[in-house]
């Protein structure tokens, strides 16, 4: 894989020009993407920018986000050949910071469940996860150092887990969502992918200008001051044995690394909030995608059509009740993060399932999307077949810097 | 003006067909819009729908919201002739409820400050207010019974006040914003216009299916149980004498109508939140409109260009600090609405200013947009020149039904 941090260091040391860095990615895409099918569109001639913190960094952008210079199909035949007039806010921001948008990465239809053609780089008979399938696979296959995706249920953290890379879903609206094809705006969250935690943290910092990574000479975090809670939610019982093993090992390794590790139960209000996710998502999808349904019903998949219809049948009272449950859940989440700093939980029930018909299950992700909590997939573990198993770390809303710093230390300990 | 409530009653009693109701609007537009210039586009042949709670209701949609069957220019030459593929969520919802989108109403450029060509129906040398200029003027001129607009600062309540109609800005995200040209997503709020409060409340109820208006046979609200607070914010001193008079009279009339009226001061945290509005708005505009600036700088107005540039110069720390002030303000607002149910405050510093170069001042509106509180312009007062003076009622987040019910009673008392 290509490390964004290593590329930036090489560039800043004058050892690699932005043009060379870009050429490496073009070459890798030409060699690999025929097999991986991570890209919906490749910008064959997009040049490197000479300046900016992301100069020379080729990024893939999930094709649910608008780009003025490349077609944007939202994973749907309805939008084949559609050419937006302006970039999504996050795409424009990446360009302003010097990045090159080297292509649009494959997404499930409207970032929902109907899969793209992308395969898992670790085994092409397995799903790469979704909905940000191409973004995760392109990074995992070593074609690009970084990519942008979105998450409404588990669409950043799950494909990152299945592909064995870092996938970071920031606090709600830390990254702008304007210019994405919205499905459920109160959940839709822009997220980032890179090879490892340090890479994705640097990507986030360079993209936003936020203080998200430790500065040179800054004293390292003392792990003894960080309370890490192994999150005993009821979903845990339904995880694969290999995943449950990995989570135990993760907790042990965190303790060995000096973190203050314990177990913590799931408050009832958070379990109930998780159940409210579908009502909120589908009601909002019924509104956001209502015009697509009215105009293009025959060209949408069955699962999308029925979800939009379901959503339109949800009454305002049912929606309001679900929002109340979410609000109570957020209160309980704040309480929980009074007791721990970081939660550890699986990123998915197990490794990437065999088959390309589904993109896997978001049961370990959707609560955090609804709570707005920052989460990250930490790669490092594998199952007996060698497929990646992802551990998810979660922090309190707004504590993205702590999340990224702790996750970087945990990743190191997982890999030793 | 056309009363939406009267039209719906006539239709339901079989006294007016949807076709006839639509024809009345077409005729009024043909006769009046050459002078008022409220419409950016008129759908000459859009038919009436036979069914749905809004069947026969012709509505104007602010041209900042996408429509699949009519060009959508966002008030900008950059988007002249632009034809979205799908409707904005609120437009699709209106169609599903039976409404006819009879045209797109004029907006300032990107719903910011550069004015449209629309004039004030009460005096064509005065601004209609903005940014939802055409929506307010089209209703006020009696061309259509209802219109949809948006508010980021004061773009619903202010033009409603200047045009002497009801303008309702619901609680944040009570109406879906997907498919609008976003300026500052955490502020951008879809709102509604109609001749009077009862009309706009009925419009909101029929559009959303929400329980927002008293049912038949429901006991009327007892005004003695409603605490109305005349809001003594510091802006009040800068309002025109005619407006300060109107506000005093409004408080007196509310007391005469039996409401429990008092005065209430502005908590410091709310005053500081108001000051944070510009930082939040401009930073978000710097992101949302960054691609427009990069691509079309020469075709944007000077005020828009400089605001986007300003926004891009605001650091994440400055933005976060402004968000913290807003959060504290929301806490103080919750506290305030423990003491009163409804606040009364001017909708604008005075009547519509003479001249078409500006659309007036949002100083009485932007706090409530930032707080997410539902607000409404109650028409009824006029200055010595006969120009409308608007009184704004504000309620706690989520208390839209109370706001609309109380505002309807106040409107009645203002008109007697």
From TrEMBL, chains A, B:
InterPro entries: Amidase, Amidase_dom, AS_sf
SUPFAM superfamilies in the cross-refs: Amidase signature (AS) enzymes
The Amidase domain, residue ranges: 43-404
Similarity field: Belongs to the amidase family.
PANTHER family named among the record's database cross-references: GLUTAMYL-TRNA(GLN) AMIDOTRANSFERASE SUBUNIT A, TRANSAMIDASE
Protein name: Amidase
Species annotation: Hoeflea alexandrii
């Amino acid at each position: 894989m290509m490390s964004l941090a290593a590329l930036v260091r090489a560039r800043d040391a004058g050892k690699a020009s932005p043009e060379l860095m870009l050429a490496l990615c073009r070459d890798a895409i030409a060699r690999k993407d025929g097999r991986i099918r991570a890209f919906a569109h490749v910008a064959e001639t997009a040049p490197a920018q000479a300046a900016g913190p992301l100069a020379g960094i080729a990024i893939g952008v999930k094709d649910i986000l608008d780009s003025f210079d490349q077609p944007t199909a939202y994973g749907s035949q309805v939008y084949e050949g559609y050419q937006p007039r302006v970039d999504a806010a996050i795409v424009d921001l990446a360009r302003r910071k010097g990045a090159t948008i080297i292509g649009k990465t494959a997404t499930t239809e409207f970032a929902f469940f109907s899969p793209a053609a992308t395969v898992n780089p670790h085994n092409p008979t397995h799903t790469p996860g979704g909905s940000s399938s191409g973004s995760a696979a392109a990074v995992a296959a070593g074609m690009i150092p970084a990519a942008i995706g979105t998450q409404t249920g588990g669409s950043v953290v799950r494909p990152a887990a299945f592909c064995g890379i870092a996938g970071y879903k920031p606090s709600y609206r830390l990254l702008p969502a304007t210019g994405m094809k919205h499905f459920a705006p109160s959940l839709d969250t822009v997220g980032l992918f890179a090879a490892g935690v340090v890479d994705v943290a640097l990507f986030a910092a360079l993209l936003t200008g936020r203080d998200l990574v430790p500065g040179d000479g800054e004293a390292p975090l003392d792990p003894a001051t960080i309370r890490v809670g192994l999150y005993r939610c009821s979903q845990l019982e339904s995880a694969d044995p290999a995943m449950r093993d990995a989570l135990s090992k993760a907790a042990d390794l965190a303790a060995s690394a000096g973190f203050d590790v314990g177990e913590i139960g799931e408050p009832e209000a958070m379990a109930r909030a998780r159940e409210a996710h579908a009502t909120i998502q589908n009601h909002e999808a019924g509104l956001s995608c209502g015009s697509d349904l009215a105009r293009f019903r025959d060209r949408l998949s069955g699962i999308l059509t029925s979800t939009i219809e379901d959503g339109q049948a949800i009454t305002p009272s049912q929606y309001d009740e679900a929002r109340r449950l979410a609000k109570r859940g957020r209160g309980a989440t704040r309480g929980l993060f009074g007791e721990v700093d970081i939660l550890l939980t699986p990123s998915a029930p197990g490794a990437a399932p065999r088959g390309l018909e589904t993109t896997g299950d978001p049961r370990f992700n959707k609560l955090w999307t609804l709570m707005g909590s920052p989460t990250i997939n930490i790669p490092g573990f594998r199952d007996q077949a060698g497929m990646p198993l992802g551990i998810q770390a979660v922090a309190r809303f707004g504590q993205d810097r702590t999340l990224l710093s702790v996750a970087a230390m945990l990743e190191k300990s997982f890999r030793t």
